[in-house]
Design a protein that fits this description.
Layout: H1 4-18, E1 23-28, E2 34-35, H2 39-46, E3 51-57, E4 60-65, E5 70-74, E6 80-84, E7 94-100, E8 105-109, E9 116-120, H3 123-129, H4 141-149, H5 155-160, H6 170-180, H7 193-212, E10 243-247, E11 250-254
Parallel strand pairs: 2-9
Antiparallel strand pairs: 1-7, 3-4, 4-5, 5-9, 6-8, 7-8, 10-11
Helix pairs in contact: 1-7, 4-7, 6-7
This protein binds a DNA duplex (16 and 16 nucleotides) through helix 6.
Length: about 260
DNA sequence: AGGACGCCCTGTTCGC
DNA sequence: TGCGAACAGGGCGTCC
């Protein structure tokens, strides 16, 4: 699931549940998810501390503690957060759990175990270490156009490249390209400034709407691609059958009629 | 550089 | 119906 809108939703969920509580214990069931630290190291950094703020960059969520470091959460292909009240059983596939002084817990759930958990001195440190590009929602139009000028390949690969633009994955790149009526393999170099301006504005609108809909494709407007992005789905614009191709190593859904 | 691939994981869906 | 193969919304390393 987790692309930028999902992670932004998790960030707000984190704020609403975990902020300002005393961290009593941590439970790490899958130490392989840790980057550059151990369960003991994580425990030393978090135990007795409080989360005081959060940030998001692309698909990464950062939670600041009052101990001069930040917890980094990345959700891979299947991660999510769940606030589990005292007495409720732990959700299936919980890999990491933060228990607070009131015995409620924030559970990190990841059936496919493809996410990562780390500690860093600052979000900026992590962004630089992973050479992430500008956040897809925070970027201004001028920088967006500058990023495009550096690219020679296809547009879907560009939108999904976290080093160029952070936050957009397979689903939302499909949505943006559908709304722009562009084929996923359109060469970025063939786009003019007017095209790029339109893509920029569509990207902002799509991401904002997705966040508003809690990143649930089923809640998106009927005019969007995502609610119809499945076998047998019809284009909400021309009513033709949607199809898919392989592009940038993923399954790219599109309307063959509307997107050339 | 960018695209194609394999791999990391495991639950679900597909096809014979 | 049953079972193995293919696939799923991410990201990294390698090769061409």
């Amino acid at each position: 699931m987790p692309e930028l809108p999902d992670v932004e939703y998790y960030r707000r969920y984190f704020n609403a549940t975990a902020l300002r509580q005393r961290i009593a214990h941590i439970h790490m069931h899958e130490p392989r998810l840790l980057e550059a630290t151990s369960p003991q190291g994580l425990g030393r950094a978090l135990k007795g501390r409080h989360f005081v703020s959060t940030q998001r960059h692309g698909k990464y969520l950062f939670a600041e503690t009052d101990g001069d470091n930040w917890l980094v959460l990345h959700f891979g292909m299947s991660g999510e957060l769940h606030y589990t009240k005292n007495g409720e059983s732990e959700p299936e596939h919980t890999q990491f759990s933060i228990e607070f002084g009131n015995f409620h817990r924030l559970d990190y759930i990841a059936p496919r175990k493809l996410g990562h958990i780390a500690l860093v001195k600052s979000p900026q440190y992590c962004i630089e270490a992973k050479t992430l590009g500008p956040d897809a929602l925070a970027i201004d139009e001028e920088t967006f156009v500058e990023q495009a000028a550096k690219r020679r390949g296809g547009i879907k690969a560009w939108l999904m490249d976290q080093h160029s633009l952070a936050g957009i994955g397979n689903l939302y790149s499909d949505e943006i390209l559908f709304q722009c009526r562009l084929h996923p393999r359109t060469a970025v170099a063939d786009l003019d400034d007017k095209d790029l301006s339109r893509i920029y504005r569509t990207t902002q609108r799509v991401l904002e709407k997705a966040i508003e809909c809690k990143a649930d494709p089923a809640q998106l407007p009927e005019s969007f691609l995502l609610p119809h992005r499945h076998t047998g789905g019809l284009c909400p614009r021309c009513n033709g059958a949607l199809g898919y191709i392989d592009s940038a190593g993923r399954t790219a859904w599109l309307c063959p009629g509307c997107q050339g």
